Amino acid sequence: MTPHISDLIIYPIKSLKGIRLSTVDVTNRGLANDRRWMLVDENGTFISQRKHPSLALLKQEIKGNEIHISHSQTGEELLAFSMEEPNTTPFEVTVWDDSCLAKPVAETADKFFSDYLKMPVRLCYMHEDSNRQADQRYAVSEADQVSFADGYPILIISEESLDLLNSKVDEPLSMDRFRPNIVLKGLAPHEEDTLKEIVINGLTLHGVKPCARCVLTTVNPETAEKGKEPLKTLATYRKTGSKILFGENFIPASAGQLKVGYAVEVKERKEPAIQ
Fold first, then answer.
1. Is the pLDDT of residue 42 over 90?
2. In this structure, are residues 209 and 195 in contact, taking their beta carbons and an 8 Å threshold?
3. pLDDT digits (tens, 9 = 90+) for 62-88
4. What strand order describes the sheet that includes 122-125?
């Protein structure tokens, strides 16, 4: 089978449910609208499912030029806000070891998420003038940018990697736990680790670093309950040093467009993260 895209997913607000798309534009920060919004605490530090698993139950949809938030279990619509860049004063926010500027979205959004999480939070937007470099230890160039994603613009996982994991666990796990942007089909399990340079629809993507996984993957995306899987099983065959690896981080070389079904051309390979 020719390797091809089987799924495309964006997460406009970091750590909420993803949105599946059939076609998506690619920017220097990653897939268009992916993780351009983020929740932060009173200190401007990002908030995620790692400490707030109930975020997994918030569904987001793009309707026209608005993002609509609803509860995945009840279907109740909870919030809607404009995707236009807010006319507000930027402030400093922190994602892991990085700091950059972001703009507050709206007081109504802050109130909803603060009530939902039972703590003061703000919803912010990464405006076009905000500068957050991709980790220069692995980036292709100093010009490489990233949104509010953990470290790199695009995460790719193959269906075959998940199939292998599911052959080892008691209950099958969904791809949603791993929050990829691009899902490929037609590879060997974990072959994505070996893809140093690929081309899809004329767009070059550089594979720069395997993705180290954390407790967020143990949150059931349907119930927000935490368990031991998949880390318990992955640790038996995907551990190197203290890190458990699943998926590969990529950086786009330019703007472009991707579509489900597009073929993947492998231009250059590298040694896999785990032999």
1. yes
2. no
3. 999 999 999 999 999 999 999 999 999
4. 37-40, 122-125, 98-104, 91-95
